[in-house]
Design brief:
Layout lengths: L13 E3 L10 H5 L12 H5 L3 E3 L5 E2 L5 H6 L10 E3 L19 E3 L10 E5 L4 E5 L19 E5 L17 E5 L10 H6 L4 E3 L17 E3 L12 H9 L9 E3 L5 E3 L13 H26 L1 H12 L17 E6 L5 H14 L7 E3 L10 H10 L1 E8 L7 H41 L3 H23 L4 H14 L4 E6 L4 H8 L3 H5 L3 E3 L8 H8 L58 E2 L4
Parallel strand pairs: 1-2, 3-4, 7-8, 8-9, 9-10, 10-11, 14-15, 14-16, 16-17, 17-18
Antiparallel strand pairs: 5-6, 6-7, 12-13, 15-19
Helix pairs in contact: 6-7, 9-10
């Protein structure tokens, strides 16, 4: 228009240019009015507002060149700017009514668009769009029409492209589609340089994938003859983590020819596992771990370790007792408990019920119900002597029962006697060995040895004469059985019935503190899951139970005669000095076949 801008203040400009043939608002037009405009300044809207311009009623061509004004101009009430072209937008008010995505610029081959392609500048989403579908290309276009968009969308389907090349605009590609081409491989370095979010590579000839493929937000790979081996498990792991790319239809071919769904494949499917070796190593690791844990536990808790071994492996690693091999010991357990306490009786019944729920079955003697006629002291001694175990249920009332205390003292006395007899036998054997060694060293002649033999026989005869002079043959027989029985004393098991404070205090004081020291003491604590295993561990390994029902507590308790004061338990040094006055006290009891009761399998 030939007019030059020489005003001191820009806002003094008032331009009236309506009803002309202006097709667009460009930087060149603004520069006619302000020569100071920097051509590199892309904010056409800011410049346009500097002037008071009225350019309505011009045939504007509505493409990307009017996008800035359409998107930012706010003087909506003053004038209307209508499109004069293209034809499908003619008459639209591009400031107020036209959706902005319609304001695009289509570039042709003369603008640098590849032959057979459709190129479009889309300012509304800052994208340059290229569609070369079926254009017969063998590679990506080396150049594109000049544009300043930050993102490029390329649709290169149905061509003959064999690789993704390192083109100048590679870093600006946002979405790349290469379906139905001839890609055989992917360059890992090229993929590293790409910033694309979406990559569609369906129906190509790709056989292997680089791990860099994981960087894309969306990847489509179906229709490729992928091969998988032992190093391909990363693809499954990738899909497990990135569920957006977990394509259930994506398959690969294993070395054995099997077609595998990648999302479901395993090392076993790929033939990459040595199961026997893995199982062996796992078992070895578990075994070594158990040994280490077991060794630590065994060192800290040796008793519990033995109980656990017995419980799970049915092997008894503890001490073997001679009394368990004595066939004369026909009673597996002799019970000692407070017969006057209903709670204790109920617990003992429950105890026997639990003990009888599994084999072996044990023969149990409840002396309160089964006892032969005769002195009670002798019956106690006799049946404890026939027992392999004596189970003592300690409760606060048991200390006030004279006969229960006598039973406990009898059982403890027998253990002391057994130790004394064993020590005497060891000592006697040592003396005999010493005498034999001495005879061998001194060269004692045959006559001397015969003399020693005669002396031994004389001593035996004297003992026999003394026995023959005994006024009571039954008493002598009883004493002989006692001597034999004392050699194999029953094992004592103390069960502390409850946590009563009086009972606890009494057991912590003398003499019970010393009496329980080093003994087998169990507590039926609900927190002790090994309690019943400990009980069975302490019981004989082979029971004498015959399967008959155990009913001692269901039989009415007979009236007991008043007890006669019993003499003290004899000293371990003189086991034969028992009080014979107890012969005068008799009890009437059931027949001999009723002595034993057994626990049955429940």
């Amino acid at each position: 228009m030939g007019w030059k801008y020489d005003l001191e203040y820009a806002f003094q400009v008032n331009v009236l240019a309506q009803y002309n043939a202006i097709p667009e608002i460009s930087l060149d037009i603004i520069q006619q009015y302000d020569q100071t405009v920097n051509p590199s300044d892309q904010s056409l809207f800011a410049l346009f507002l500097t002037f008071y311009m009225n350019i309505t009623n011009n045939p504007f061509f509505c493409d990307c060149k009017v996008y800035d004004i359409a998107a930012e101009y706010t003087r909506v009430e003053e004038w209307r700017y209508r499109c004069g072209g293209p034809a499908h937008l003619e008459g639209w008010d591009f400031i107020h009514d036209l959706p902005l995505h319609n304001l695009v610029c289509n570039h042709t081959e003369s603008d640098g668009c590849p032959s057979g392609c459709h190129c479009q500048d889309r300012p509304h989403n800052d994208t340059y769009y290229i569609d070369c579908t079926g254009a017969g290309l063998s590679e990506l276009p080396s150049t594109l029409p000049e544009n300043n968009r930050s993102k490029i969308e390329m649709f290169m389907d149905d061509n003959f492209i064999t690789e993704i090349s390192n083109v100048p605009y590679l870093s600006r590609i946002f979405n790349l589609t290469l379906r139905n081409n001839e890609l055989k491989s992917l360059n890992a370095e090229i993929l590293k340089d790409m910033t694309a979010k979406k990559l569609d590579l369906r129906n190509n000839q790709i056989t292997t994938l680089p791990k860099e493929i994981k960087k894309f937000e969306s990847v489509q790979l179906t229709g490729n003859p992928l091969e998988c081996d032992c190093n391909s498990m990363w693809m499954k792991q990738w899909m497990d983590i990135d569920t957006r790319n977990a394509d259930p239809d994506l398959t690969c071919t294993a070395n054995n020819g099997d077609i595998l769904h990648i999302i479901e494949m395993t090392l076993r499917d790929l033939g990459c596992t040595n199961e026997a070796l893995i199982i062996a190593l796992v078992c070895l690791g578990v075994f070594l771990g158990l040994i280490i844990v077991g060794a630590i536990f065994a060192k800290r808790c040796p008793y519990e370790t033995k109980v656990i071994i017995f419980r799970f492996f049915k092997f008894h690693p503890g001490k073997k007792y001679d009394v368990d091999n004595d066939k004369e010991k026909e009673i597996d357990a002799y019970l000692v408990f407070d017969h006057e306490d209903g709670d204790v009786i109920g617990y003992v019944r429950y105890f026997l019920h639990r003990l009888g729920k599994q084999k072996p079955l044990f023969s149990i003697l409840n002396p309160a119900q089964f006892m032969e006629a005769g002195p009670e002291s002798r019956n106690i001694s006799k049946y404890i002597g026939k027992s392999r175990r004596v189970i003592i249920f300690l409760s606060k009332g048991i200390f006030n029962d004279e006969w229960r205390m006598n039973e406990i003292e009898e059982a403890e006395h027998r253990q002391i006697e057994a130790v004394t007899i064993k020590n005497n036998e060891i000592s006697k054997k040592a003396k005999q060995t010493k005498r034999l060694n001495k005879n061998a060293n001194t060269g004692k002649d045959k006559d001397d040895r015969e003399e020693d033999k005669m002396n031994d026989l004389t001593e035996i005869c004297i003992d026999d004469l003394a026995a023959g002079n005994n006024d009571n043959a039954d008493e002598l027989e009883f004493q002989e059985r006692e001597e034999a029985s004392l050699k194999k004393a029953p094992k004592l098991i103390y069960i502390i019935y409850n946590t009563d404070e009086t009972l606890t205090k009494q057991l912590e004081e003398e003499p019970w503190k010393s009496r329980l020291d080093g003994k087998t003491v169990l507590r039926p604590d609900p927190d002790d899951r090994l309690f019943w295993s400990k009980v069975r561990y302490e019981m004989p390994q082979k029971g004498n139970g015959n399967g008959k029902p155990f009913m001692p507590f269901d039989i009415p308790k007979p009236e007991r005669p008043l007890p006669i004061k019993r003499s003290p338990v004899p000293s371990p040094k003189n086991p034969k000095s028992r009080n014979k006055n107890d012969h005068n006290r008799k009890l009437t009891g059931p027949i001999k076949s009723q002595i034993h009761a057994t626990i049955s399998q429940t």
